[in-house]
Amino acid sequence: MKKLFVILLSAVTVNISAQSIIHPSVGAKSTPEGGAVSLTLATKHVNYPRCPQQYSDVYINSPKSANIHPDGTKYYVNSLEGCCTVVYDMESHKRLKVIRYDFKDGKDDALWSKPSDFYPFTHYHNNLNTFQGKPVEATFSHGGRYLWIPFYRRTFDLNAQDPSAIAVIDTRTDEIVKLMETGPLPKMVACSHDGRHVAITHWGNNTVGLVNIESLNPDEWFHEKLLVVDYVLPLNFSLTQSVDRDNNSGYALRGTVFTPDDRYLLVGCMGGNGGIAVIDMKTQEYLGRVLGMMPNVRHLVIRDGYLYLSINKAGYVQRIKLDKFMEAAHNISGKTTTLQGWESCQVGAGARTIEISPSGHFVFAACNLASKLYVMDTRSMKVVCSIDVDSYPVGLDISNDGRYVIVTSQGRSNGGGNAVNIYEVNYEEPEPVLKNTDGAAVLNQSGTPDSTIQAALPGTVLDSPGNATLLYVGGAAAAVILAFCAFRFFRKRQSV
Q: Residue 314's closest CA among 240, 368, 250?
C-alpha cells in the first residue's frame, strides 16, 4: 500500500510539473485586454521537443538575454549553452548571423587585449585561451557601435573559479573585434553614459572590474581598476565534480547601473545579506552597501529620478527617489546603512529583468516562476496587464520606440526554456522614441571632429544638431566644385 501511495504521489508530482510548463501560441494577447497598454505575442524562436517548426531555431539553447540594437534594425540573443549569440532582423525576424565563441590559442591571439595583473589563474595553467564561451548579458557602447558580451565561464573551468572573458562585437559586421579577461563568473555589464567606462560585475567572487574605453581604437582599451565589495570570496572547488555556483557565491553581484551623472556605480546583491553596493566613480572606491529594500535584489534601472529594483524571490518591483538613495549612500557608516521608504508593487514570482518604456510610464518585468511578462504603471505603482511567456523567462529588452519587447526563457531543471518570445506593445497614449547617444559625449570632449563621430556612431542622433556636419558636407561639396572648375580651367588653357 505504501509503495502504491509513493507511485501515485510521484505521478501527481510529474503531472503538476508537466502542467507548469507552458508554451503560449503566437497571437496570444495580454489580460486584461485594452487599457493603458496591451501586449500581443507577435512571433518566437524556439528549440524544444515537438516545437512548432515555423518558429524552430536550433541555435536557441538556454537563451539568457536579448539586446535590441539602438537603431532598431536587429536584435541579439545570447544562447548560453549554445556558446553563441544569434542575430535577428527586427522587421522580418529572420536569422542574420550566428556569432560563435570557439577560441584557440594561436589562432585568436590577435583578438586579446594586453593582460592586466587583476585576474591571475590559480587552478588552470595550460591552453588558457582555448575554450568555448558561454554568453550571459550584454551592453552597447559608442552609440551602438560595439556590443560587450561576458562569458559565464570558459568551458574548461568546470566550476567558474578562474578568470573568464568578455567579447566585444562590432555591430557593423557582427564580428568579434576584441577579447578581454574578466574575473570569475561575470554576469552583468554596463556602459557609462559618457562612454568612458564599461563595468563588469563578477558574480563569482564579489568584485567589479572597470575597463577604460575612452579611445575610439579598441586596441587602446585597458583594465583600469578592480573593486572589491567587502571581501574577495575564496574559490577552491573541485576540478572534477561540479558545484552549484549560482548559489552560495558571496553577495552574488548582479544588477549594475551608472547614475545619470556617472558619478556613482550601483550594484545589486542577490546573495549574502543583500542590499546595493555603492562605488564612487570619481575616486574609484567602494563606499559600502545600502540596505532596507526587500532581499534578493536582481536588476536595477534608473529613470526619471527614481531607482527601480526587481526583487526575485518575492516577485516585486520596488523603487525610491534616487536623491534619497544617494543621501543614504553618502551617510554610510561602517559597511552598511539602512534606508526606509521604498514603494512596492507585486508582480509575479521570480521577478528577473526589468525595463522601462520610453515615456517612463511602464515597467516590464520578466517573471521566471510565474512564466509571465508583467507590466506595471509607474504613475500608480500597480500592475496593468500580464501575458504568458514560454516557461521560465529571465532576460528582457525593449526597443527605443517601445513597440517591441523581447523576452528570453532559459529553462529550469524540470523543463521549459529554449525560447525567445517577441511581443508587440500597444499603448493608449503614444510613446516617444528614445535617442541613444552613449559614447558621443566622450567623443565630443576629446575634440574629435563631428564627421568622425558620425562615422564612429552610425545611426546615432547626437545631442548637438547637425550644424557642424552640414558645414562639413557643404565644405566638401564646395571643394569638389572648385576642383572641377580648376580642372576645366587648366584643361582649356592647355587646349589653347
A: 368
